[in-house]
Amino acid sequence: MSFTTTESRWTDVYLAAGARGVSVCGDFLAATALALALQSAGAGGLAVSGLLLAAALPLAVLAPITGRIADRVDSRKLLIIAGIAQALVCVALAFAEGTVVIIALVAVLACGLAVTQPTLAALLPAMVRREHLARASGINQTAGMVGMLIAPAAAGLLVGQFGIRVPLLIDAATYLSLVAAGLLIRTRRVPAAGLARSETVAWRLRDDRLVAVLVGAIAAVVAGVGAITVIEVFFIRETLGASTTVFGLLSATWTAGMLAGAWFFGRVGDRMPGPARMVQVTLLCAGVTCAVVLLAAGAWHALLLVPLWLIGGAGNGGINVLTNVVMAERVPEQARGQAFATLGAAVQGAGMLGYAVAGPLIDRFEPRLLVAAAGVAGLVAVAVCLPVVRRAGREIAPLPQVGDRQVQLAGDSVKT
Question: Which residue from 212, 206, 204 is spatially nearest to 323, judged by alpha carbons?
Answer without folding.
Answer: 212
